[in-house]
Protein: MmcQ/YjbR family DNA-binding protein
Amino acid sequence: MPLPAAVLDDLLAYACALPGASFDVKWGSERVASIGGKMFLLCGGGALSYKVADEDFLMLSGLPGARPAPYLARARWIQVSDTEALSPDELRQGIARSRELVLRKLPKALRGQYGEQA
Structure:
C-alpha cells in the first residue's frame, strides 16, 4: 500500500522536530528536512528518501516498496514508497539514524552546535 499523505506529513513533522533540524522546499515541491544545511530527509511524489548506513543499503533498498533513491543512491540513500517495506515506527528510526549519519559528516565546529561530541 503506498504511503498515504498523512503518513508522509507525520514523518516529515517528526524529522523537523529532531534537534537542530530545519525545513525547506527544494526544486519547487520537494519537502526537505536538513541539519547544518545538509539534507537528511526528502519527501515528495508519494515517497520519502533518506540516508542509510553503508552496510544496510543493499538490504533496505531491496525490500518490497523500497529502492535506491534516484540521484542519491551513490550517497547511500533509499526511497520508500510503500508501507509494505517498513512500518512508520521503522521509518522514524531510519529518519533519526539518517540525521545522525549526516550530522557526523558536518565540520567539527558545526557538530558541536548540535550537541554532537567530537
